[in-house]
Amino acid sequence: xxxxxxxxxxxxxxxxxxxxxxxxxxxxxxxxxxxxxxxxxxxxxxxxxxxxxxxxxxxxxxxxxxxxxxxxxxxxxxxxxxxxxxxxxxxxxxxxxxxxxxxxxxxxxxxxxxxxxxxxxxxxxxxxxxxxxxxxxxxxxxxxxxxxxxxxxxxxxxxxxxxxxxxxxxxxxxxxxxxxxxxxxxxxxxxxxxxxxxxxxxxxxxxxxxxxxxxxxxxxxxxxxxxxxxxxxxxxxxxxxxxxxxxxxxxxxxxxxxxxxxxxxxxxxxxxxxxxxxxxxxxxxxxxxxxxxxxxxxxxxxxxxxxxxxxxxxxxxxxxxxxxxxxxxxxxxxxxxxxxxxxxxxxxxxxxxxxxxxxxxxxxxxxxxxxxxxxxxxxxxxxxxxxxxxxxxxxxxxxxxxxxxxxxxxxxxxxxxxxxxxxxxxxxxxxxxxxxxxxxxxxxxxxxxxxxxxxxxxxxxxxxxxxxxxxxxxxxxxxxxxxxxxxxxxxxxxxxxxxxxxxxxxxxxxxxxxxxxxxxxxxxxxxxxxxxxxxxxxxxxxxxxxxxxxxxxxxxxxxxxxxxxxxxxxxx
Amino acid sequence: xxxxxxxxxxxxxxxxxxxxxxxxxxxxxxxxxxxxxxxxxxxxxxxxxxxxxxxxxxxxxxxxxxxxxxxxxxxxxxxxxxxxxxxxxxxxxxxxxxxxxxxxxxxxxxxxxxxxxxxxxxxxxxxxxxxxx
Lengths: 572, 133
Known about the structure:
Chain B: Pfam families: LSM. By secondary structure, chain A is an all-alpha fold.
């Protein structure tokens, strides 16, 4: 199969969201597309898989390796599943190695692990394995639905209760789908079973500590006293790993990237010293070894799941309260609470009034401490309500922390932009207004300044992408794929100039109206530019300022000309 | 952990009770258990709530997986204020009946309107064929 390098080579995808979500960084932020076509997709090579399955059934138990593109690596892999794993790994890693976008892709050979297919794909960091080593002792082997999802395995009855905490993620294979860019180091689709550290992250950030979940035999309704919530279990072994294993080394001189971050992320002149320290503090620590030029394009991928996030929120990087290890102590307290009612074990069959009564009783219990949803949006000190949540809601934390981090990472990547004032004009303005209000209130109000956490989005250097329609060898014509950056031309709009004679009165009126609308549009356009100059003025260096003011003045004159009906751009 | 302050990231909303309005007009109420990058939602202990006038009825539905593109809006329900509503809850049968009656009435009035317009030689323009100017 042929692997295509850029997004534009992909065939038209029904999933418009994938394309909408992509910025200029087509090659890098292509998680959706990869999910559909790339490594996230189901292996479309069903013929081969089918053959393999047939062979497997014929020769049950024999370790014959199937024929196919899977090379004989020297390892005698008795298990066809592992053969597929090999092929996958190679496909993934090879394409990564070729891709200029990825800074460092390390091809590591990993012994096939019996349990998970995913691990061989995603975890190629030896460091990670070392970290995982001692923690693995706690991991109990469990039936993984992952195995079930593999096409090679003969369908076995997996009716035994699958522990939802071992939630299996559908197996992913990278298929050489046309147009799909090579697999990124960024995981795509659903988060992998083990914490995924992309290859290049080794260079930049420390690997994220793995959340190992001890398997729970029964999720519910096991009494709370006897077990900790999943998050607690995760965090107990990991607590020593949380925080920054890397020493902070703040580089005294800002790299271009850091400056861009400061300028872009913070409002001009409004960057508080604490924010400054935070941004540079975090960015500084992993940077020293990395070429800044490379980094410019790679900011979005810099994020490690948990640790890197702290750069993006202006909040101090304190360990969040919910992650501190809970002692298994509250057992006795829980026992008392548990007996009256579980939190809606299955109340859907109850009469609505009965349910409401039940719920109200629970409410009262809860209100004695604090409301479950947090009182009025109080997010900060919600430790006890979080504990309440764990205690009362047996279904809480179905979504793992790392999964949340993973989604958050994707969302952050989507916010990357070369010019936030261009891409996200309204949000930036809205936020400025909010801050102005807050600042004004602080002046009049009392008390210390409330540290409002601010979202700082990374700034990326602009890369030029020209669409080149891809062409197969030996075929006639080219594929044209529509994407957000290369939209399909739907209308063949041709401009025809009218002659004045055959115009009716109505048409004239209509044209006049249109002309007026166009003038208004132009005026607003110019006005936006003028405002833009004012903003750039504040950010720019001293030398550039007069030039900017000059341009701004010119724009104002253009507005005037435009409103007067003259063509803008005349010399003054 | 403060996920993405100032944005509409749904991560902070997990495990909380939400009201979700879908594009087909349905209203779902349930506990938001999981999300993904497309804002696909997993709702737990979901109830479909039908509103007719001042009355409403709940149909228990269980677990919903909602594709993100079908969501119009969603909002967190304040559990304390949830029961503090002027609306009156009725049984499912009753609310479905009310809904049917309301639909019928609406259709009849629409038919009458079109008829009246036709008699006068006018036609109700359909939204997609409206002229711009």
